[in-house]
Amino acid sequence: xxxxxxxxxxGAGTEHLREIAPLxxxxxxxxxxxxxxxxxxxxxxxxxxxxxxxxxxxxx
Length: 60
What we know:
- By secondary structure, the protein is mainly alpha-helical.
- It is built from 2 helices and no strands.
- It has helices at residues 12-26, 40-58.
- The longest helix has 19 residues, at 40-58.
- The protein is globular, with a radius of gyration of 14 Å.
- The two termini are 28 Å apart.
């Protein structure tokens, strides 16, 4: 991948989660304070929507 200009960035996932945290908060999820009984399917769906919104915002 490096020969094609693709580089790994340490911490990129954490940075991305910080960027989408406000979008997840609108959905009712606070990643810093998730209850033990969090519905994982609902969280995954919210993550997908937040990622889609974030990607759309980047290209507008």
